[in-house]
Amino acid sequence: MLEHCRNARERWGGVSDLIDRWLKERQDVLVRYCELSAENDYSQTESLRPKLVLLCEMLMDYVSAGHFEIYEQLVREAREFNDDEGLELAAKVYPRITETTQVILDFNDKIDGRELSESEMQALFTELSRVGETLASRYELEDLLIAHLHTANADKAEPA
Q1: How many CB atoms lie within 10 A of CB 156?
Q2: Each residue of 42-84: pLDDT tens digit?
Q3: Nearest Cα to 153, choosing from 93, 45, 44, 76?
Q4: Burial class (CB within 10 angstroms; exposed 0-12, middle 13-18, buried 19+) of 26
Q5: pLDDT at 98
Q6: Which of 22, 62, 99, 158 is deepest in the core (most CB within 10 A)?
Q7: What is the CB neighbour count within 10 angstroms for residue 113?
Q8: 37: how many CB neighbours lie within 10 A of its CB?
Q9: Is 57 helix (H, G, I), strand (E, B) or coil?
Q10: pTM given for the model
Q11: Tens of pLDDT, residues 76-107
């Protein structure tokens, strides 16, 4: 998954500074996720909780940037270039991305600033695995949007 993230950044990193920054955030989220998912001593709730909180903060920033900056920009570009196929793709993919957002929001809500028992921590780490699967699915969907909308409109855009 990390290699896929790097490949996407290399392929579409030049689309815009905004997407560059977002793909860097994606990579940072993935690194943090991998580090955290390697933990297996759930009795260390005091040291694990801040790591989960940091991951959730990073996830929330990433998801927010996607919804409120990146996707809007991609759709705006598709409209500007009369890319009906791109708009149709975005209309199909966006609801699936929104589903992944809900999984991430639900996970974030489970942390909710409270102390966690060892059994609650273990349950969170089980849920963290689902978050990882969700991220992989989300990244594929995002890459599909970026690839299509960039490829379809790159030759129409004025050089930077």
Answers
A1: 11
A2: 999 999 999 999 999 999 999 999 999 888 888 888 888 888 9
A3: 76
A4: buried
A5: 96
A6: 22
A7: 6
A8: 14
A9: helix
A10: 0.84
A11: 888 888 889 999 999 999 999 999 999 999 99
Tell me whether residue 146 is exposed, middle or buried, using C-beta atoms within 10 angstroms of its C-beta: 0 to 12, 13 to 18, 19 or more: buried
Type of residue numbered 18:
L
For residue 30 the two structure tokens come to: 């993935």
For 159, the 3-state DSSP assignment is coil
Maximum CA extent, the chain: 56
User: Helix (H, G, I), strand (E, B), or coil: what is residue 107?
Assistant: helix
Q: Which of 149, 9, 1, 25 is nearest to 85 (CA)?
A: 149
Q: Is 84 exposed, middle or buried (0-12, 13-18, 19+ CB in 10 A)?
A: exposed
Closest CA to 141 of 82, 68, 84, 63: 63
pLDDT value of position 160: 44
**With contact defined as beta carbons under 8 Å apart, do 40 and 29 qualify?**
no
